[in-house]
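Example (one chain per record):
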Amino acid sequence: MDARGGVPARPPSYEGVWRFTAPAVDVSVPQARHAVRDLLARQGVPVHEDIKDGLLLIVSELVTNAVRHAALLSPEIAVEVAIGPEWVRVSVEDNHPYRPKALEADYGQTGGRGLHLVKEIALESGGACDVEHTAGGGKIIWAALPLAPMAPGPGTADGRVTSPRQDPSAP
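Predicted structure:
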């Protein structure tokens, strides 16, 4: 209900779930990033600029990983954006069964740290990320971030959420 006790408050108009598919090729990386950026703008999502930048970097990293490592078994990938009143969640799904793990920084390597970067961005913003298997044997890698940066609060030195809930976009 609203403050006057009248009509129940409606959820913000920017909430919803959008999904699109793309071929697992290099050109899909900037296309997916631009599609997510344009969706956020078109829906009027009140996402903080720093969070949006992190989210778009996450999209680039996840799509790049799918293109580089899953294209042989998954010529098409799916990108999903779910927006709630306080969170935005992006996920990339492919049909490759390998479940990647975040690698620690190896400065001798020029790559291989994308998932580690995704986890760090998610944690730094107060969000979360994970990898899940699909019913068809593939995987979904997702990251959920708050729309606004987390402010430091009592009991937290760095402002991170200390909630035990793993998937902040879940009800």
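Caption: Confidence is low (pLDDT under 50) at residues 154-171.
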